[in-house]
Specification:
mainly beta, four-stranded antiparallel beta sheet, 33 strands, 0% helix
Length: 361
């Protein structure tokens, strides 16, 4: 919910509490619901909605102090509502199911109509056969709807649902008035659009980490990653680290002994760590501009690799200067005449943290 409204903090009792002072104090509410709360949506004008495990929709017009059941959608067994969303005027609302179904309401949640989705219109191809059908996000920008699913973004006009993919955009967030869209493109740059996807401005600086959350406040986009908090606006681009230099660092996922020093890194991180010989503690020796994928020694050099696709890029590490220099590995790493292949097997099965099951073909 927003700064005022209900929250639920006890999954066992499903008790709901209400705050009118931005979370400083809370009071217990009389809640007309026995089933588990699933998701909620709150607007600045006091309208709010909550859905439960049985796909009931509850509505409040007074910032969540009083609730009334207004509707229900029929769902299949083992399916439930994943999210509920209303635009700033509450004229249009949406809910998505874990099955990937999309519904729209125009009467505050009393009745719901099924809408086509990119998947039902054959506009979306699964990344893998077992992926979830659910839609991650739906929002409105002017007279258009936007959907995010598996890092793919689709747009359609509100008058006629005909989804088309926006191939360059990976993440988006729309302001509270549904008039400005902020987006992160596939290359990590940030852009801003008016209704009709008219470009307002863009920044060439890149967000290289995985995005955890987005929020629009006061004409700025706030981007939370696992390492940084970004604040981006028309004439502003700020990047603040979430990691303190003196924090205790645990043993990294991968380590290598190089010239008497023990180095390491965590897969997908950016820190190249070094172990202090006296204290035995790990500390951050240097930081890369990209997510690390590998750490290896080659012909006396220390190399790191990026997670760039389709092929990783390699860089030579200078520990003294704390610099990374692009390095090109030879096309063939192994001399097969001196080291011929004597045995080759193909396996099928799985090899994961819960065990190993495989068989030779």
């Amino acid at each position: 919910m927003r700064s005022t409204g209900p929250t639920y903090n006890d999954a066992h009792t499903n008790q709901v509490y209400w705050s009118g002072d931005r979370g400083k104090t809370w009071k217990k509410m009389e809640w007309p619901l026995a089933s588990k709360v699933i998701t909620a949506c709150g607007l600045a004008n006091g309208n709010a909605w909550i859905t439960d495990k049985n796909a009931n929709i509850f509505y409040s017009s007074d910032y969540g102090q009083n609730w009334l059941k207004v509707g229900q959608v029929q769902v299949k067994e083992n399916a439930h509502i994943q999210q509920i969303y209303f635009n700033h005027t509450a004229q249009n609302g949406f809910l998505t199911l874990t099955t990937g179904a999309l519904y729209r309401t125009k009467d505050l949640g009393k009745t719901w109509k099924v809408l086509p989705t990119p998947a039902s219109q054959k506009k979306y191809d699964k990344v893998h056969k077992d992926e979830k059908e659910s839609i991650e996000k739906i929002q409105r920008l002017g007279r258009q709807y936007l959907i995010k699913k598996q890092d793919q973004v689709f747009v359609t006009d509100t008058s006629q649902i005909n989804w088309r993919r926006l191939p360059d955009i990976q993440h988006f967030e729309i302001d509270a008035t549904n008039t400005t869209m902020y987006a992160i493109k596939k290359d990590g740059t940030t852009t801003c659009y008016a209704p009709g996807l008219r470009l307002l401005w863009d920044f060439k600086q890149k967000v290289r980490e995985g995005v955890v959350a987005l929020e629009v406040q006061n004409d700025h986009l706030f981007i939370l990653t696992d390492k940084f908090l970004y604040k981006v606006g028309k004439d502003l681009y700020q990047k603040n680290s979430l990691v303190l230099q003196d924090r205790l660092i645990s043993k990294p996922y991968l380590t290598v002994d190089y010239q008497g020093d023990l180095l390491g890194f965590d897969y997908g991180g950016r820190d190249i760590l070094m172990k202090d010989k006296k204290s035995g503690k790990w500390y951050r020796h240097m930081e890369s501009d990209f997510n690390l994928r590998g750490l290896l020694k080659y012909q006396g050099r220390l190399l790191v690799s990026s997670d760039a696709l389709p092929q990783p890029e390699f860089y030579a590490v200078d520990l003294d200067l704390k610099q990374l220099t692009r390095f090109q590995l030879p096309a063939q790493m192994i001399d097969h005449e001196k080291n011929p292949i004597t045995r080759f097997k193909i396996y099928s099965g799985s090899n994961g943290c819960l065990g190993q099951k495989e068989r030779a073909l």
